[in-house]
From TrEMBL, chain A:
It comes from Neptuniibacter caesariensis. This is Electron transfer flavoprotein subunit beta. InterPro entries: ET-Flavoprotein_bsu_CS, ETF_a/b_N, ETF_b, ETF_beta_N, Rossmann-like_a/b/a_fold. Residues 23-211 form the Electron transfer flavoprotein alpha/beta-subunit N-terminal domain. GO terms for molecular function: electron transfer activity. Keywords: Electron transport, Transport.
TrEMBL record, chain B:
One of its GO terms (biological process) is fatty acid beta-oxidation using acyl-CoA dehydrogenase. Binds 1 FAD per dimer. One of its GO terms (molecular function) is electron transfer activity. Keywords: Electron transport, FAD, Flavoprotein, Transport. FAD binds at residues 201, 226-227, 240-244, 257-264, 278. Belongs to the ETF alpha-subunit/FixB family. The electron transfer flavoprotein serves as a specific electron acceptor for other dehydrogenases. It transfers the electrons to the main respiratory chain via ETF-ubiquinone oxidoreductase (ETF dehydrogenase). This is Electron transfer flavoprotein subunit alpha. Heterodimer of an alpha and a beta subunit. SUPFAM superfamilies: Adenine nucleotide alpha hydrolases-like, DHS-like NAD/FAD-binding domain. Its cofactor is FAD. InterPro entries: DHS-like_NAD/FAD-binding_dom, ETF_a/b_N, ETF_a/FixB, ETF_alpha_N, ETF_asu_C, ETF_asu_C_CS, Rossmann-like_a/b/a_fold. Residues 3-181 form the Electron transfer flavoprotein alpha/beta-subunit N-terminal domain.
Length: 249, 308
């Protein structure tokens, strides 16, 4: 079985982003970029399935401008076999990403698709579900456990009330949550090896997808700042302040 | 055209998050319909019909919707929703699960987690863990929107509206429900609690969370956690507050042994009053705290319990 993993290039999760002074967008100039953490978990899961003999090949795909090849290389260093970049001028919105991925699925015919539940830049949490609808596949979102059994996959999902398990017909789409696994670090020899692994570049036109704008970003502003508070010296003082000043007790 | 809101429920009770979504929807237009899709969920439809501002309740009672499976819900909502100007759901794990399918089936964008309505087609939403607020205009005929509950007051009750029963069964047979492990608790739900006390890695282990629970019981508070506390197995996943967990905004949030990473702050920094208890005076949590106490939590918590 082939597994397709889709990965996004995003700002490194340790970086606190700043808004541009003209309020057109956030400022990503000279900011450290990385593999979206949820996508890293997706790659790890696919690689483990290959190591367990369940999967035969792990193909990783990323959509965006040229630099997203770096994140494809990272995924290859973590153990994926081959990469596909769909080159676009800008990072497309989710529905367009899902349409491009649907075409890649048509060509690659994977048995399972693993994605992140959320990109930590857009915080959209929607691309996997959109892709599932476009390909008429079932979905196991926010996965904390994935168990393949013949032509079915059982996915345990992190939901508001606790954990829910669903059984999906394959091919299916799984989106990862934080507890699915702990991704490994790429070793230096594997980083070197990754440079020689195949990486195909395609265009939306080759895939027959027209990128249409569905939304327009009007402006980006900083959030309201919180007023700096005070330090209290003791539990007595804390309780007194909460009762008489903040009036929340 | 009217607005379709999808109710969040467990077939027995209507979840409060629905009411927050209704308030957001009232800012987009006047004619509001509320869909209750489930199985044996008549009681939910009755409760829904009493929400102020709702003109009509649509009830889709079918086994196919018992567990709100995304495949079936997505198809149903897209089928009904194609005649509406807006489709609005609370941004709960259930809403987040099926709504993007609706958007894709209708070939429109989804605008996730909105925190403000500027006009019928322009919305604000936090991006980058709440470190920026985007104002986004929808260019689609149908606007598919999930609503961050903490940004809108819950709608109250008003005159009851009519309930229309629908007969649309969408059973895609692509997926099946296996089981649910629901954390039972007598405490209020995190997302609607007035007071929350959360513990982080500093708690050391799961047993030590009883220190928080004892205080929570005195205050009628909910108990939350940081990702580190969940990852370490101290507490279950549904207690995680943050960018990728639950978003909360209580009257009072007490962070105990939590450093205050941006991903945690994203889930709680809109709380009215924030208290931080941490032994490291440099911890970033103090930058958002109204009242900070630099001390060892194992000294503070028993003392706090005594004083309440
Ligand atoms: C993709 C992604 C998503 C994430 N999503 C979330 C999310 O939704 N929610 C979330 O919370 N995190 C999230 N994180 C994790 C986040 O980056 C931090 O790692 C996490 O919040 C740290 O948890 P913590 O503050 O409990 O632990 P630490 O950062 O280890 O802090 C522990 C604190 O406890 C204090 N302490 C220790 N002992 C004591 C004591 N005896 N008395 C008083 N204080 C003490 C220490 O001084 C320290 O400040 C996410 C990370 C990633 C990469
Ligand atoms: N440009 C992209 N290229 C590849 N995968 C993407 C892209 N954007 C989103 N995804 C996938 O969709 C997931 C969820 O993203 P989002 O819906 O934007 O929060 C990510 O974790 C990726 O797996």
């Amino acid at each position: 079985m082939k597994i397709l993993v889709s990965v996004k290039r995003v700002i490194d999760y340790n970086v606190k982003v700043r808004v541009k002074s003209d309020n057109t967008d956030v400022d990503l100039a000279n900011v450290k970029m990385a593999l979206n953490p949820f996508c890293e978990i997706a790659v790890e899961e696919a690689v483990r399935l290959k190591e367990a003999g369940t999967a035969s090949e792990v193909v990783v795909v990323s959509i965006g401008p040229k630099p997203c090849q770096e994140q494809i290389r990272t995924a290859l260093a973590l153990g994926a076999d081959r990469g596909i970049q769909v080159e676009t001028e800008e990072m497309p919105e989710s529905l367009n990403v899902a349409k491009l991925l649907a075409k890649v699925i048509e060509e690659e015919q994977p048995g399972l698709v693993i994605m992140g539940k959320q990109a930590i830049d857009s915080d959209n949490n929607q691309t996997g579900q959109m892709l599932a609808a476009l390909t008429d596949m079932p979905q196991g979102t926010f996965a904390s456990e994935v168990k393949i059994d013949g032509d079915k996959v059982n996915v345990t999902r992190e939901v508001d009330g606790g954990l829910q398990t669903v059984e999906l017909n394959m091919p299916a789409i799984v989106t990862t949550d934080l507890r699915l696994n702990e991704p490994r670090y790429a070793s230096l020899p594997n980083i070197m090896k990754a440079k020689r692994k195949p990486l195909d570049v395609k265009t939306p036109a080759e895939l027959g997808v027209e990128l249409k704008a569905h939304t327009k970003l009007l402006k980006v502003t900083p959030p309201a700042e919180r007023q700096a508070g005070i330090k209290v010296a003791s539990v007595d003082e804390l309780v007194e302040k909460l009762k008489n000043e903040a009036k929340v007790l | 055209m009217a607005i379709l809101i999808i109710a969040e429920h467990d077939n027995r009770t209507l979840k409060t998050a629905t009411r927050n979504a209704v308030t957001a929807a009232t800012q987009m237009g006047d004619e509001l319909h509320l869909l209750v899709a489930g199985s044996n969920c008549k009681a939910v439809a009755v409760a829904a019909s009493e929400i102020a501002g709702i003109n009509r309740v649509l009830l889709s009672d079918d086994l196919a919707y018992e567990h709100q499976l995304a495949e079936n819900m997505g198809k149903l909502v897209a089928e009904i929703g194609k005649d509406y100007s807006h489709i609005v759901v609370p941004a709960t794990t259930s809403g987040k699960n099926f709504l993007p399918r609706v958007a894709a089936l209708l070939d429109v964008a989804q605008i996730s987690d909105i925190t403000a309505v500027e006009s019928e087609n322009t919305f604000q939403r936090p991006i980058y863990a709440g470190n920026a607020i985007a104002t986004v205009e929808s260019l689609d005929a149908i606007k598919v929107i999930s609503v961050r509950s903490t940004a809108f007051e819950p709608a109250g009750n008003g005159p009851s509206s009519e309930i229309s029963e629908l007969n649309i069964s969408c059973d895609c047979k692509l997926s099946a429900f296996v089981e649910e492990v629901v954390a039972e608790s007598d405490r209020p739900e995190l997302t609607s609690a007035e007071i929350i006390i959360s513990g982080g890695r500093g708690m050391g282990n799961g047993e030590n969370f009883t220190l928080l629970e004892q205080v929570a019981d005195k205050l009628g508070a909910a108990v939350g956690a940081s990702r580190a506390a969940v990852d370490a197995g101290f507490v279950p996943n549904d207690m995680q507050v943050g960018q990728t967990g639950k978003i909360v905004a209580p009257e009072l949030y007490i962070a105990v042994g939590i450093s205050g990473a941006i991903q945690h702050l994203a889930g709680m920094k809109d709380s009215k009053v924030i208290v931080a208890i941490n032994k490291d005076e440099e911890a970033p949590i103090f930058s958002v705290a109204d009242y900070g106490l630099v001390a060892d939590l194992f000294d503070v918590m028993p003392e706090l319990q005594k004083q309440l």
